[in-house]
Amino acid sequence: MAPLKNPNANASPSLTKRPQFFRVLIPNPFVKLPIPQNFMKHLDGDQYSKATLLSPHGKFWHIDLHQEGNDLYLDGGWSDFAKEHDLCTGDFVVFRYEGNMVFTVKVFDVTCCLKEYELASCKSPGCSSTSNESSEVESLTLSQSSEHKDEVQCNSTPSSKKRKSIEISRKRTTSPVTASIKKTQKTSSRSATPTIKKTKRITHVSSTPIKRIEKTTPSSPTPPIKKAHKNSPSLTSLPHFEKIVRPYSSKYMSFPKKFCIRHGLISRKGITLKNLKGKSYDVLLYDRATEVRVGKGWRDFTLENGLRDGDACIFKLVAKSTLLVCLKDVLGEIEAHKDSREEIACNSGRVIEYPQFENIVRPFNLKLGYFTIPRSFCLENGLVKKQHIILEDSDGKKWQIQFLIRNERAKFQKGWSKFSKAHDLKVGKKCIFTLVKENTFRVIIEKKQAENDA
DNA sequence: GACAGGCTCAAAATACTGGG
DNA sequence: CCCAGTATTTTGAGCCTGTC
């Protein structure tokens, strides 16, 4: 099925009013389950080709969607899901939409009670224990999943300060956090700015001292939670701790050493962080005198999950070496499904700028007839394969140029020479390329820079 | 001449260590 | 907790060769 895509959306539904629907199971839904037509308005903009179900097992299931006319069905993988969860005729299944085609699922049986499930590693094809921790049993339960929001929100909001606008176009992968660092370093060196101080102070209010936050299962080095039970521990009772993202957090995060020792994390060196969307990130731990630092791999996590100065991260130990990370931004909102900075910008009402980059024309651009493009820009904007793109000049005239990537290097080539000649490009001129839509750049050519500066 | 592709090397960014 | 410094990795500029 061709994915239906709405250009608008990615935005997660408001966390305070997540849409839900339920289905009472009749025999047919064991093959495929229809999504109510009225509910589909909440899916606008998401890709309809697949859905991810966060099961009561605490596992993520990837289910194919099938569209018939105006109807949308949970199809491929649904029967496996039903089988794995022992769904019966008359069962009442609640789907809560988390955004980005992710649903948490609750199952009530004919007695109107929430069904209990064993937290076993599932081996069914659609189940997302595909990552490197496939053998591990995750202990995130359905109730946990639905409770996490309340749990985290019970902490006071860290700060009401407004965030700075997002720099979407960046030169040479300058992350927001990095940018923040640079800014901080410029304004003052060792002493934090008043804003940061404030954040810090509030941090202590919001994050109970680690000793109090951390609730461990009795005296076992690792929490052997194997069964979801009505009385089973909720996420709040899983061992966890909270940390606030600081400017230096783009480089590393420090974990409380006591927590790591108690749960045997240090001995493992490499652990897995998992976001609420189920994506796993392998990171390395470095044992230090007074703390344990998360090093290699951490940066990827911060970038992909849009962590910024002031955000709170709640790390919950859900398996021997797996920490589930709940994010809470500086405004106190839990961001369960951050997908991109653009999405974050949408959610917080910030202005979205078109991605752009700029380059100065160099001699070889004219001599050899190609123009190099920052790799980071290409990666961020999905320019990853050879294709034709359109350059639109200030007169509205369009030029077809070949975009290609070779050896991890991206450049405009075929057609570039014509463009450069037509616009009388000279060495030192600055060109600003704004990606206004897929495959189309608007080009602004600025005047020659002050005599090549020197 | 235009285009495709490869190589080297310096600069920048990132990962990590040391220590106040 | 946080900054400074160093080591390592990644990226892009520049140039070259081969093919059409």
Automatic annotation (TrEMBL):
Residue spans of biased composition, Low complexity class: 128-145
GO cellular component, one term: nucleus
Molecular function per GO: DNA binding
Region annotation (Disordered) ranges: 122-233
Matching Gene3D superfamilies: DNA-binding pseudobarrel domain (2.40.330.10)
Segments of skewed composition (Polar residues): 174-196
Domain annotation TF-B3: ranges: 18-111, 238-331, 356-449
This protein's UniProt keywords: DNA-binding, Nucleus, Repeat, Transcription, Transcription regulation
Subcellular location(s) of the protein: Nucleus
Name of the protein in its database record: Putative B3 domain-containing protein
Organism: Carex littledalei
